[in-house]
């Protein structure tokens, strides 16, 4: 039997842990189906009932299982590739949505699976047999070496064998032959629980399923794989979760990769009696395509990178893959925030991700571990790479048979609290393991600025300090990251530079500089332009034996970026300190490194650190051993893009007599890079000369530069860990008359040079080019190069002059602002009485009255740039202080009432006249006689905040709560009460109970219990004939009972938009409104324009002539429209001959609409009222989706979402001259838009993940963006594209020119967005 064969595998003799790790990677073949854990009814498996959404009866475990921090005794197995500790909700509530679910879930393959009609089976059991427990133990021990003594006492197995995806039944269509087999095993020893997911070779034939809610919209959602704890107790926040997949490719690679070294086998630590904030993946395995190379110890493997790679079975080679192509991504503290992880099998879980984290560190659960420095075994030279050599790979150890998976390990030695790893063979130091301090009361992660790389620590609730040893030890600055919530671009994009774009990653957001700019994203400067530095210098020095103190003297630096020259001037340093500082060129040399000329493959300091960093220097002079410490702190860029820096100098320097000059020869020094730290140590000679006197001295300098990095983005694997700074010219001078100390250096940054290279160097790389100082040098072949003026300048590159953006209009200063031109840039300043909005370009009116500066008994009058206060009637004073007028016999209410009545007599006056009671007191409820607004007031007549109500709504209740009144029950309520009494109080799921709204009226949609059998009713509850639906569809019922109105208002589900350009998008049964400010999304002003219950609105377009919006409804199988005018009603214009109308396009010139039907496989047209309908095309179409019209040139374009042969076609508007435009290098062209201004046809492809454009004839094709998520629909406006995205469930904007993401809007309601269109305040004319 299979189980006997599994149980009888031979066991190898003990192997040292570190030696075993590389061996595990040499497994060549993927998991064979026979190598799954034994299953079948002969093993005691129970069989889950066939069906589409079945759930097992509760499985009461003989031994409880720990999942996260909780202990569970019950398990449920579901058809849809999922196990839970509680019964499942209806599948529509979780199958079609991304992770996490709102209930506990263990998901080896969460998708819409259907085992009806014998299409596979689902088996499950609890098992305590030695064969199963032994195999599970061997897997766990291999993946978690510090759990070498894990001995499970029980296991739970669930197997999905040859199961199929849910498919709609179509006449004459056979079910798909794609079937999946996979298995989940949960093993526990009573204290710790582990999960094993197994995917045999060829076991995943379908990678996702189509959501039911999309009806006939042919989209496929990749399967979700991972774990989640479920909602938190307060039901408002997500609990911890761990997500492995988000794309089809990442799902496919589940059986091609592994975190155990066996393709298709994955292991996870999922629960413990000790603290376990989140699931922890095994960290022994690696990239199977580089199986012959050892795992770089101390580095965390990027499964995200590996699983997003495209591995086809035809070309997947587990041996012969270029090792340089493998990408590695270190686990970082920021990746462990908030207990959530939703990255594609990256295993950088947001709570605990560290390299080999279960391999060589102290186990908080077992209190045992293995010190890498104490492992016995053969010499590991060549198998273990140092931190400084992580870009190289070493030869692989010999192959080992898969049966070697289960060695019998010896008990590891006790792990000391703070143990240093032994040095690497090259003698370089290896960072020490770190202490784990007690939990901190606040949830934050503290990263100290220690200069080593690739090292992360366990994170838990509380504070952990992580870092590596500092070779200076004097910098106490701490970088702190808040772990309260994951930060996203939506709320934090303003932290990025104006010249950067913001990108969301699984664990947070990062900023990236736009094209032609460089920096770290939060600070970006134009390439090739000169840069300036302003700062202050303070010092407490002893020069020889003389103390010298100075505070905040000026520092200015000027840098020529295109040849690496940096000039620094420090004024008013008192003698003798200024003369003694001559040899300390590193004070100005910092700016040389920061803006050094970059050689190919290298980056200068500003590209990494931006404008926020700390530079520490410790200099020891010889032979006197005087020591000085210098700290330079960069504090960002000012509004004119000048770098701000503070310098502090402390210590002792040798005395240098007056009139001596200092000379330093050109030099080269190595800079070592690791995570957020750069270090360098070197020695320099300098000579002091005066006349015939020439003396040579020296000093040794240690430098340490610390800065913040964004660890959420994938790390670039090719970036060198060591770069060489070449300083070709060094100059130092002090002028006693000017009292100015000057430094000048010329710098290049590049790779480490072994010997001088006689090959000619391109002038761009050594600064010998003839480009203007405000131009970028572009290297060509050999010594050829071209010059291009930097951003903000114009000319031929050899000669560049400043471009006056203020004069040409190429600026972003808004109304009520003044544009001030600056060299290479400009600045916006607001006029008097205005202030900047958050975008720092738009000036908004300052309402001083909102600051409540006046007395409470005064009225504030705001004027541009100022305001005034005036005491109200019944008071006297200057408005800032008001005193009741005791001479008046009127109350304050009566005084204000008389004053307002006098003002009301003036034409056009709209003053509020206060209402007083018989005693002259303010009535608690005040209403404006002209506007209809109402609000509550206190006894002094001041408005109670939050009580104002708009016209037509119910006025607020002011004063004590009213006594409850009982209205008589309505017909609906009486009928409901009678039926409930008849049913005995609790109806069955299939029994009808009338649904009533809050006012007791019948809701328009009525359904049989929890079934899908629904129908529409009129206001009396009578069924509307012809509306009864079948399962899977919902009738579109329109409310028949009008809400109470004070005066005519729009329908309650229609909110008219304001004037201006805005986007309309469809989301289920709603049409959303998203206004634009220029091209920026005004997310705060977004709202619902129209709500149609029971609809699924897909396509949408706009008629600019009549201000009418049109849409398709795949649930109602209709095409409808509604005016954007106040009080307009929706109107159905096509209601027959449709099955799945999707794409829709409006020709506002010919008054014609065009649409696609993906089930009828047709493209049709009709006039805008639905008349003169005709079929344009009904052949050679498989899944027509998007459609676009060019009314100026008379062309029609559409996409065919045919997986076998996707294409984009065109024809004339009357259906003539049909031809294929694009049919190569496309996958799933969902969205299509035609820009009448640029004459470009552009599409968003959910298969290739690209946004591309072409000319109307199919030529000039180019890629705008190549890393979309899952786009559905797209529209073009101005210099941006806006598309809806099914992965983000939002609207994403992309810049046309740079191709970068600029913003996104995520509606509060989490569901898929479909169509999108732009609404102009005019009809675009375009150009021919």
Automatic annotation (TrEMBL):
SMART domains: EGF, EGF_CA, G2F, LY, NIDO, TY. InterPro entries: 6-blade_b-propeller_TolB-like, Cueball_EGF_LRP_Nidogen, EGF, EGF-like_Ca-bd_dom, EGF-type_Asp/Asn_hydroxyl_site, G2_nidogen/fibulin_G2F, GFP, Growth_fac_rcpt_cys_sf. It is found in: Secreted, Extracellular space, Extracellular matrix, Basement membrane. CDD domains: EGF, EGF_CA, nidG2, TY. One of its GO terms (biological process) is cell-matrix adhesion. The keyword Glycoprotein applies. Keywords: Basement membrane, Calcium, Cell adhesion, Disulfide bond, EGF-like domain, Extracellular matrix, Glycoprotein, Methylation, Proteoglycan, Repeat, Secreted, Signal. GO terms for cellular component: basement membrane; extracellular region; plasma membrane. Residues 760-801, 802-844, 845-881 form the EGF-like domain. It comes from the Eukaryota. Disulfide bonds join 927-934, 1007-1014. Pfam families: EGF_3, EGF_CA, G2F, Ldl_recept_b, NIDO, Thyroglobulin_1. LDL-receptor class B repeats lie at residues 1107-1150, 1151-1193, 1194-1238. Interacts with LAMA2. Interacts with COL13A1. Interacts with EFEMP2. This is Nidogen-2. It comes from Macaca fascicularis.
